[in-house]
Amino acid sequence: MIQVTLLVPNLEDSGDDLWFLGIGNILRYIWAAVSLYLDIINLFLLCLELYRVRRL
């Protein structure tokens, strides 16, 4: 599993840093969706492989 970490700046400096936090949240949601999609594909391929082995 690849871990992606985003550096979040200190939020007490100014309100201008909040946009970066928003982009970080969006990227985290996109990354979660992509990894879930890949997990579903891997599960499907595993079931296909098990089905093929069982038929032999």
UniProtKB/TrEMBL annotation:
UniProt KW keywords: Membrane, Transmembrane, Transmembrane helix
Regions crossing the membrane: 29-51
Top-level lineage group: Eukaryota
Name under which the protein is recorded: (rape) hypothetical protein
Gene name as annotated: BnaC04g54980D
